[in-house]
Amino acid sequence: MKFTDKELIPEVLSSNLLPDVTMGPVDISQQVVLKDNIVYIVGEAEYIDDKLQTNLMMWNKENGALEVRSIGASTNLSFRSFYTHQNALKNDELYWFNDRAELKRTNLKTFKTDLIQSYNVDVTEELYYSARFLKNNDIHMVVNDTTWGNSFDKDGTKMRILKTSLNHPQDYTEFPIKDGKRLSRLFSKESLTPTHNSFAVNPKLAE
């Protein structure tokens, strides 16, 4: 689908069935990447040998064709999320975060996928994270370490920001977010969760 005019009128360009039509709603990445008229999406589209697959979905915006390549196996978490961005595309290498908060790299020609780095993030159904790729090769992750039901404990909501880069992904700095009690009040409504509604643009360590 594309949006046209100032009123953002939607126009459906094509519609394709995923490999496994019996699957429910598919969790896809929050960002997509465009290269040579191909839209790349990292998400889930099928089961193979009872394992939910992480797929690279490639949609040709000129003719509407869809191609799907399996690039890894996902966990069985009921919460899954993938993160990539146009800023994460370097030549033919696409960088992306999987549901374990691991930084991966997929070659868009060979589809070879490598693990680049893990970042001390324990992702579960209750503990979430979000990631952003910035223009200067920086990567920022907002991590929620608070289990549901504990946000009003003595320390309040526990969150932190991890800062790394595509140039040196093995090196990262951790910024603890203070005043968890104020955060717990801010995110007390069910429609707000600390990571789904947060991202770090320019984090600075508090004095």
Plain-language structure description:
The chain is mainly beta. The chain has one helix spanning 180-186, and strands spanning 2-4, 9-11, 33-35, 38-48, 51-60, 66-73, 89-90, 93-97, 102-107, 113-118, 129-133, 138-144, 159-165, 173-176. The chain is globular, with a radius of gyration of 18 Å. The mean pLDDT is 82.
Task: Summarize the entry for a quick read.
The chain has one helix at 180-186, and strands at 2-4, 9-11, 33-35, 38-48, 51-60, 66-73, 89-90, 93-97, 102-107, 113-118, 129-133, 138-144, 159-165, 173-176. The chain has 207 residues and is mostly beta strands. The strands form 4 sheets. A 4-stranded antiparallel beta sheet has the order 3-4-5-6, with no helix packed on it.
Q: Provide the gyration radius in Å.
A: 18 Å
| Helix-strand sequence | EEEEEEEEEEEEEEH
Number of helices: 1
Strand arrangement, largest sheet? 3-4-5-6
Considering DSSP H and I runs of 4 or more, what fraction of the residues is helical? under 10%
Mean pLDDT: 82
pLDDT below 50 for ≥5 consecutive residues: which ranges? none
